[in-house]
Amino acid sequence: MSLEPFGARLRRAMEDRGPLCVGIDPHASLLTQWGLSDDVAGLERFSMTVIEALADRVAVLKPQSAFFERFGSRGIAVLEKSVGVARAAGALVVMDAKRGDIGSTMAAYAETFLHKDAPLFSDALTVSPYLGYGSLKPAVELARESGAGLFVLALTSNPEGGEVQHAVRADGRNVGATMLGHLAAENAGETPLGSFGAVVGATLGDLSSYDLDINGPLLAPGIGAQGAAASDLAGVFGAAVRNVVPNVSRGVLRHGPGMIALRESADRFAEEIRAALASA
Ligand SMILES: O=c1ccn([C@@H]2O[C@H](COP(=O)(O)O)[C@@H](O)[C@H]2O)c(=O)[nH]1
């Protein structure tokens, strides 16, 4: 049996817990800072600590796959355990793996993360559309079938993203806007929220020249370590701010390894976000 669509599950979680997404990004420097070894044991302790501290209070946890893949198959085993434990504890899990390839290979990535029986099944997956949006079709189809979601890189938080995403097409629209248009079409008619989201950086300043009304979630990394703040959200996203899922990774994780300090940090960001949305 497939799950209720991701968009509906996410909207409920946002209403119940607030929209904050905390990243599980076990940087080597953070492992050291937490007094952990830079090995699989340290990785597992780090990830389980974050999950135990936060999975029952934030809407979304976002493991960054790269930091687990770094340790090979045993790192992937920790990732698999993390996804299962976090989901069982009540958080939605967005797998940040940014997959993208030709359609036939994309189908295998989709099986890996979006098939309901897959060991790494996640509530949603980040994907790259830069082999053409159409190459993501197998992931879109399997996500629909499983009740999962996607977050498509549209306007990323890093300064280098513009050279691709701001490139102007023959029809006058830029590439980022084109991705937003595809997502709006995917989500048309869905209530209370579509399952096909965009990644749009909180670092990007005024985005009023973009139509962010895609009837889907906007995953917004960049708060904390990359310099954006919760108070920037209304200015960046305008009316679309109610669909924003702000991500903070290092900004929270740097307060570990104590669980109370992790919780207090996440609660502070959640409160700042709540205040920013209330005044928007
Ligand atoms: O445009 C993007 C897309 C993804 N990310 C990811 O989000 C987190 C941000 O971590 P911070 O420590 O809060 O900077 C990280 O996993 C990135 O890979 C992004 O930053 N920007």
TrEMBL record:
Q: Catalytic site residues?
A: 98 (proton donor)
State the EC number(s). Answer: 4.1.1.23
Region forming the signal peptide: none
Chain coiled-coil ranges: none
One Pfam family cited in the UniProt record for this chain: OMPdecase
**Which reaction is the catalytic activity of this chain?**
orotidine 5'-phosphate + H(+) = UMP + CO2
Keywords in alphabetical order: Decarboxylase, Lyase, Pyrimidine biosynthesis
Enzyme class per UniProt: lyase
Q: Does the keyword Lyase apply?
A: yes
Member of which family? Belongs to the OMP decarboxylase family. Type 2 subfamily.
Q: What protein does this entry describe? A: Orotidine 5'-phosphate decarboxylase
Source organism (scientific name): Streptomyces dengpaensis
* Gene symbol of the encoding locus: pyrF
